Amino acid sequence: MTDDQLLRYSRHVLLDEIGIEGQQRLLASHALVIGAGGLGSPVLLYLGSAGVGRITVVDHDRVDLTNLQRQIAHGLATVGQPKAESARERIAGLNPDVVVDARVQRADAALLDELVPAADVVLDCSDNFATRHAVNAACVRHGRPLVSGAAIGFDGQVAVYDSRIEGAPCYGCLFPPSSAHQDVACATMGVFAPLVGLIGSVQAAEALKLLAGIGTPLAGRLLMLDARRMRWDELAVARQPGCEVCGGH
């Protein structure tokens, strides 16, 4: 680490659990973030500011004025720009140490099979079940930990799915791909602005813990937040033997 880096990351270095070695692990890490919207914004800003050395962000959408109520990685100056490129500019303004690969594409199976094996951790910040299932399947195929979040209205949830851990479930164990799940859009249901910040911050924290090799990951547990009452509930979850995604692994 350079003198500038020691100064920039000094508050991490002061933590016994992280220290210089942990920060160096972060600087050498690669995170793949699917989605640069409400959840992706705090995820990307915290991973970038914390010094994750390489970040790949995938998002096919463009910044809209209605996004600015909650998608803090973007601003008026980037309305109309691809969200992935807007987020890259924002991270560059925070931390020049970080290399950001902005992919203005949909996260389909072919792209995920290209990107997931190269990542140390994958963060799903998407807003639809089809993408979540595609990301989960790719993480199971390639043995990568997945930090998944979701938020709508005043309700959010976050979990870590890591098929490398014996007995730990994948996303498909809780939400089978063959089951009927109805997507709910922010455009029709609305979303409490700080909710995505709360869930996205937890996602970023779990990813940093995984990358630095500290703490206990949120695997086998689903955290659910009711922001109306500001109440967190935790549900223990286990791998399902008949899971059509990870049951044979």
Structural description of this entry:
- Helix 4 (40-50) links the parallel strand 1 and strand 2.
- The protein is built from ten helices and eight strands.
- It has an eight-stranded mixed sheet with strand order 3-2-1-4-5-6-7-8, sandwiched between helices.
- Helix 4 (40-50) packs parallel to helix 5 and helix 4 runs parallel beside helix 10.
- The radius of gyration is 17 Å and the shape is globular.
- The longest helix is centred in the last third of the chain and has 20 residues, at 193-212.
- It is α/β, with parallel strands linked by helices.
- The protein has one domain (3-236): 3-Layer(aba) Sandwich (Rossmann fold), CATH 3.40.50.
- The chain has helices spanning 3-8, 10-13, 19-27, 40-50, 83-94, 109-115, 129-142, 171-174, 186-189, 193-212; strands at residues 30-34, 54-58, 99-103, 121-124, 146-152, 155-161, 221-226, 231-236.
Keywords:
249 residues; 8 strands; alpha/beta; Rossmann fold
Provide the CATH top-level class: Alpha Beta
Mass-distribution shape: globular
Q: Main beta sheet: strand number and arrangement? A: 8 strands, mixed
Total number of domains: 1
The CATH homology group name: NAD(P)-binding Rossmann-like Domain
Query: What is the number of helical segments per DSSP (H or I, 4+ residues)?
Result: 10
Strand content: 15-25%
Strand order of the largest sheet: 3-2-1-4-5-6-7-8
CATH architectural name: 3-Layer(aba) Sandwich
Radius of gyration: 17 Å
Give the termini distance in whole angstroms.
39 Å
Alpha-beta content class: alpha/beta
